[in-house]
Each structure stands twice: as structure tokens, then as C-alpha cells.
Amino acid sequence: MNMQFVRLAVSGKINRDTLCLLVNVHGDAVVSFPLYTEALRFAHHEEKMIQTAVRTIVLNIYNVSDEMIYKFIMTPPVSDYFSVMVGRLREMCILLDAFLHEKGDMDTQKRRNGLILESDKIIDELYYLKDILSVDEPRLNQLVTENLLNGLVFPVLFSLPASMNNNGSDLSAITSLYILSRLLQVVGGRSMINNVAGVILYHFLNLNARTLSEGNASDSSNEVKPFSKCLNEVEKIISYAPESKGDGNINGNYLDSLLEDFRTRVNISCLNGDICPKRQGILAFVFSEDQCLLLASTFLLLILAESKDLDSLLAPMIRLYQTQDAMTNDTSTSKSLDASIFGGFMPEILNALLKVLAFQESHSPEMLWHAGWCLQKLLNFCREGLDDDNLLLFNTAYDHSHVHFLKELDGVWFDHIPDIVRNEWSSCTKVLEQSSQYKDPIFMLELVLPQQSTNGQTSSCFAWQKTVDAVKAFILHFQLKTFIFERELAENPLIAISSNDSGVICSSNVSSASFGSNVSLESGIPCTIAFSNAEIRDVYVVPMVHKNTGKLLLTEKHPFRSRHGVVIAIAPLAGLCSFASLSVSQPTIDKDHPSWLHLRIREFNPKLYATKAKGDHFSMPDHFVDGRWTLGFPDAKACKDAHLAILREITKQRSAVEATLAPLLNYDLGLAEENREK
User: Fold this and answer.
1) Which of 4-13, 295-304, 448-457 has the lowest mean pLDDT?
2) pLDDT of residue 390
3) What residue stretches are annotated with the FPL domain (predicted)?
4) In sequence order, what are the residues at sequence separation of 6 or more whose Cβ sits closer than 8 angstroms to the Cβ of residue 402?
């Protein structure tokens, strides 16, 4: 390792004047370069620090090399370094895919963490390739690009149709789409963008060119030109692919077979006129019944559509909008733009995304947010907006989310809903405003993972997650509704209201009530309770509410102050519910013992969970046990009176929360009324 750091120090001193001291030259050619070749021996060392040192040496050499050095670097066997590096990257992709689909009982969160770890390794390699491509040397760039295209990109692209059915492909469809998306984000560049776009659009271009050419010649001759011209350019890309034979990992015969299978699939689909074009090529993924593939393929298309490096011939075939130059061109160009992959299928694509939102009960909030991101991106460039059928579908999805949101006001976490709205509103807005270039495609892989099972658990921590999910879904639909009708995202209606400001004035202040503090027993109700390993104790139960905060206090009579008690236990008022269910926030009277009052105590701490869940990589606990209190009263009437007193305070607290949420709900009603008038 010490020798590596010596080499690293030496490489930092390299310039064109000192370079001649580090190479052996015979005639006009470099025959050996020990600093470079010895460093490459440790290029894939398991120690990350050594890998970093080697890459620093390599990049320093590339940045100062002259003609003879580049010739040495780009001549076999030294140049095999690039093919080996790409081959290793491909192996990483295969390992990632295997890990994603590995069968077993691994915890969902552990699998998610493993995916992140494996994907980070791939991202690290891609950034290193980007650093090499950033060196201002066209020949080096061409060599690296050719190896990357032929060793990874083209094999993934040509096997993509087969990967949908896991037939003849090393990678599943979802992993392939992830790799391509990440590659375009990190490496990018005109060559990479246009090669990927060309193959992705090949089926679409082929089908349109054939359809137009077989139609009425007088009507379609001008329309077919853009497709034919673009198709000819893409054919050059496709034909170029297998030219670099044998790179050490992907031989030419293998790439030839992939290409032949790819072309066969395209030709068969184009010749069969009865086959719906939506079932072929990239559109087969967009309109797949697997909604993970829908989101992943739409995301990949959006990356390409928003790229500034897209060739002028390819851009109209995928563009979401017309440029000013295109608008001034002839009518045929305008028609060809209307027949772009988005323009030709926009209502159908929007409908597919809206179905994800409409059947929200079976999807995680993360999937809904990603579907909402895709929908908002497309609507941003769709001047016509939603047609009547799609608008009806969205309104149905919105109504469902609204009902689930209101239902949580009767749940055990209703007192936290205003804070959840404040926290999640900014998160939702941030997600919707993300550029495709900076949106992390790891979501594609995470959506494949099974959702964490509750295993029949009914504890408050799972009720908390259910409440958060309902709020997140409603915020998304609220934002999308505002965007659909007003073409902009809404500001948070609760932003001007402080956390505990509801506008409702209550007589009791519970902010200072804590364990061991003295409180008045004016509203206290005498009862008995038996704690574990302790005798039955005489206590007073005191329900108290101040604005959005409510507590149920258990107190013992103060030894010296007869009208005061000492707090011995505190429970959140909103969290009280029956032992059997968390669906309704209220205590229950025992049927067999009418003088007993059962309370389930909410023990889960969302603030502690939020601290541990930073980065969204913390799972809910598998088992969580809430507290349980059973209060005994002198008779059934006293128990019923105590039950009603607690319910009255819970109702006060719920009214305070509803008043806090009024700006949100009233804004929603105002928007609905405004749209009815339109």
C-alpha cells in the first residue's frame, strides 16, 4: 500500500516535462510505462482507498499525456484495461439484478439497504468513466465510449424486448431500465444519449415509416420523410454496434446474436398489421400491466425527452413540446412532431398513470408520488390537459384520497395530522419539481420490493404509518388537482399557522403538565388502577385539552394539598382506543364488567422514529406493544360519566384539529367550486 501512495505522489508531479523520465522509449514509440501499468494491477483492489489512489494516478496521466503516451495507452494489451473495466461494470449490474430478485425471507429494509449498496458501486464506476470521458482527448473518448456501448449499453438495449419476459436476457427489464437511466444521468453526453435514444425509438420509427409509406402516397410523402431520414440515421447506429469485435467480455458473436434477435422482433411486429403498436418496443413497457415497468420506462423516456444533447433528427420523435424553430417550419414537420412517441400516445400514457392513482389502496405512497411526478411532467407540456375520460378518472382518484384523509380524523393520530401535512407538503412539492436529470432512479428497484407486512399488527406504530400514507396520498392529489386546473402547484395553506395554533380557546392548559407535577383535581374523576407488580391504587383521571394538544392524566391525591394531585402517568388523549381496534379513537366500557373502562395507550413516538428514519432507510419495528390501562369505578354510572367526560375532551381536541385544517379543506372546496363555474 505504501508503494501505491508513492506512485500517487509521483503522479501528482507529472507534467509534459517530467513525463519523459517515467517511460521507456524505443524509436518513436513508448514500449513501457511502469507507473501506469503497475498501477493498473491494483485497479480492482478490494480496498477502496487503493482503488481511489489508482484512479487518481490514471486520471493524472490521461490529463498530461502526449501523442506517444496515448498511442501506448490505446494499444492492446494495455488498452484492454477499458474493456475489462466495462466487463466488471456489467458483472456488477448482473449481481444487482440477482440481489433484487433473490428469493428468501430477507427483511424488506435489509434488501433495500443492500440494493443501495450494490447500486452505489455501479454509480461509482460510472462517475469514474465520466471522469475519463471528461479528459480532452477525442481518441481516448472514442475508445472508452466504444467499449461502454459494445460491452454494456448495446447488450442491455438489444436484449430489452426479451427481458420483459425474462427470456434470453441476463438482466430483468426493471434492472435494465434502471441501468440505462442511471447511465444517461451520470455519463450522458451526445454520443451516449443519441445511441440510447436511437435504439429505444427504433421500433417506433420503423413502424411509423412503414405505416406512412404504405398509406396514400400523395398525402404521406412529406410526412414520411422525417421518419425515414431519422430511421436511416438510427440504422447506422444499429449497424455500427457490433463492429468492435471481441472486447474480452462481450464477444462479437454474442452482440451479433442480440442484434439479430432485436431486429427480428421489430420486423415481425411491423409486418403484423393487426398487432397494436402499444404492445411493441418501449411502449410495451409503458403500457405494461406491471406498473413498476410503466413508471421506469416513462422515466427513461422523460430523461431522453428533456436532454439538451438529443440530436435534431431524434428530438422531434420524443420531444414533449415544439421549439420555436419547429413552429415556424412547414406543416409536414408539425405533423411529424404531433406523431412523436409522446404526442401520438399522450392520452393513453396519462390514462395508464392515472390508473395507478385511482387504485391507490394497493400501492405504496412512494409509487403514487412517482406516478404523480410522471403525470405532472407530461401535463406540464400537454396544452390540451386531460380529456373528459381521464379527468373523470383523476377526480375519482382524488375523491378516494380525500375520503381516506378525512377518515384519519377519526383515528388515533388525528392530533398529528396538521404537523404531518406541514412536513409532507414540502417533501411532495420537492418531488414534483425534481428534474429528470436529478431524480434518483433507485425508486425503480425499490418499487419491486414487497411492502413491509403488518403481520396482523394493530399497534399504534402501524396506525401512524397508515395515517402518514393517507396524508401523503391526499397532498399529492391536492397538488395535482391544483396543477391540472390552475397550471401551478399550490402553496401550503397551513404554512402561516403555528404548530399548536388552532383558534379554539380551551380552559385547561396542559403544556406544563408532566410526570410529578401538581395539577388541580377540579375536573378529576376518582377511580382505581392496578399497575403490574403493584397493589390496586386509588387515583384520579383528568382529561385535559389545550388547542391541538390533549392529555389524559392519572394523579394521586397530594399529601398536603387536598384539592391537588401529583401526576403519576400521562397518556395522549387522541390515542385512547379500544383493545380490539385502532380504527376509532375512544375508550370502551367492558361488556361483562360495566364499571371497568378499557384504554389502549399510544406508546409509539413519531419524533424518535423520524430521527432514525432520516434518509428513508429505517423500517417500522416488526413488533410494537402499546400500553393498556383498565380503570375501575365505583359503579356503572360513574364509569359511563367518566367515559363521556373523556369523549367530550377528545371531541374538543378533534374540533381544534379540524379548525387548524380548515384553510386546507376550505381551499379545496373553493377550488372545486371555481372549477364547476368554469
Assistant:
1) 4-13
2) 93
3) 9-62
4) 474, 477, 668
